[in-house]
Predict the structure.
Amino acid sequence: MGFKRLLASLGAGGASVETELTELNVVPGGVVQGEVRIQGGSVDQQIEGLSVGMQARVEVEGTDQETKQDIEFTKLRLGGAFEVKAGAVHVVPFGLEIPWETPITVLGGQQLRGMNIGVTTELEIARAVDSGDLDPVNVHPLPAQQAILDAFGQLGFGFRSADMERGHIRGTRQRLPFYQEIEFFPPQQYRGLNQVELTFIADDREMDVVLEMDKKPGLFSEGSDSFRSFKVGLNDFQGTDWAAYLNQWLAQVGGQRNWL
């Protein structure tokens, strides 16, 4: 069974609410299944609305400092108003479709630190909104995304960190107000590189793969970045040797700029 959490006690003698996710493991474009269970208290109560959504805690660049912001990036309303009778149990099942752009939270079977993504539950009671805590979900890579990640591993790149940043990457199909960056540190043969940042921006057909190469600063020069974006079909990615493709591009860009 999935994660079960007590959401709230709705006033003195009021109902209590639990949200249970029956499947924690999903992929972008998939569906989170679960149910909201409302246990009536000692009095009847009118519930004006019930909804579930997906929320992410993202980084926001400021003029002086970096802050965190909770962004709800999809929401599903579970019917209209209803009454919960005293002592009765009201169960509302749901299937919440998550966007194709949803960031990955699991890589190589390991949780990515700092990827705070999950399901929120919201109740409207007498024109007040009662929001619960986050129910974490495990977002695994799509097969096409896994192929690119595997290619980095084959080239000897190691995972460094991941984060989610508010903003938009120009020239991509991005629709959400934030994006994920997965950072890798390079193997020794890419000696001019400090790190490579990888971003996936998918829809139901294909995805933009955005790479940012960060040059190591030299004795008489500062570090600099170079970007590369290409498209990968979600259903026709198998015919490409992605390790060779990435290596060719990295070598080409590095050679042109005398990085490597």
